[in-house]
Amino acid sequence: MTKLVVDPQTLRALQLTLKATLAKATDVHRSTLHEMRQVLSAIDGAVKVRQAKVLQCEIALQACQRGDRSDCSVEAGALAEAQRRLAAALSAKRKASQAASTFESRSRASLKRLEGIQAEGQRYLSFKLDKVIAVNAGGLGSSSAPASAGSMLTSVPGVGGLGTHSVPGLPHGFTMVPVADIDQTENPIHGPQDFSKGYSIEDLDYAFDLLESQVLPGLASGSTSSSFAAADQANGSFGTRSLSDTFSGFFGGDAIRLELRPDGSYSITNGRHRVFVASQFGRHYVPARVTGSTP
């Protein structure tokens, strides 16, 4: 089977885009804070003007009361109006200050989270870049060693010295099957042109990463579909890049289904695209439902 060649420049471009996106978000954050502080300064200036007006009206009323006039209602009314306007300005200042403080706190937290996501994305892209370079060169990615499917795997003797594997917490009826033992010659997948089900090669490779790094360890520690859904909601993940879709895709109704042949190889009943992606990116195992060999 001809290996799929992935352009490393695409991943490098994504790295630059991630870096530029964070820089833009940081600039917007700083600009917004600067404008917000200008607004607070303007409100503070308006408060000082109204405080001065109140003082002016108080002096005028006191002068009237010390004088010969018996009616100081004009001065008293002016003072009351100035005090009302000052109270409104002080209330607006308090609300604006509270809103600004809340915004600044949440904005800084969001920026920090974005920085973390950007760093995680850079690490992931670097990892994928190393793998793509290795695959394009004819080797296996750095994550292709058998242990990459999880150190929890327990080897069972099987074909080719690899054997099927069992993972703690793996749903009933599933086993980890060596990709090398799966026959892909029947109705084969050739490349991106054969992916027309709403997901791409990159989507499925990302799903394998989630499977190995989060779903399998989660199952081993007792996680369920509800646990994965809750994690997705907390992280804002959805669709093909979510834990829920990864779990249901590998262990639901559309799971990989294989048939064990008498010679120890496996034919594919369902899941050709995932098996193809696994083989292209140097993965040793896929989780599958396996039926027995036929006479």
Question: Major sheet: order of its strands?
Answer: 3-6-4-5
The beta-strand count equals 6
Structural class comes to alpha+beta
Q: Could you say how many structural domains there are in total? A: 2
What does this structure look like?
- With 295 residues, this protein is an alpha+beta fold.
- The protein folds into two domains: 8-136, Helix Hairpins, CATH 1.10.287; 146-291, no CATH class.
- 58% of the residues lie in helices and 8% in strands.
- Helix 1 runs antiparallel to helix 2, helix 3 (201-220) crosses helix 5 and helix 4 (225-235) runs antiparallel to helix 5.
- The longest helix has 64 residues, at 73-136.
What is the strand and helix layout of this fold?
Blueprint: H1 8-66, H2 73-136, E1 154-155, E2 165-166, E3 174-178, H3 201-220, H4 225-235, H5 243-251, E4 257-260, E5 266-270, H6 272-280, E6 285-291
Parallel strand pairs: 4-6
Antiparallel strand pairs: 1-2, 3-6, 4-5
Summarize, please.
The chain has 295 residues and is of the alpha+beta class. Helix content is 58%, strand content 8%.
List the defining traits of the structure above.
295 residues; alpha+beta; Helix Hairpins; 2 domains; 6 helices
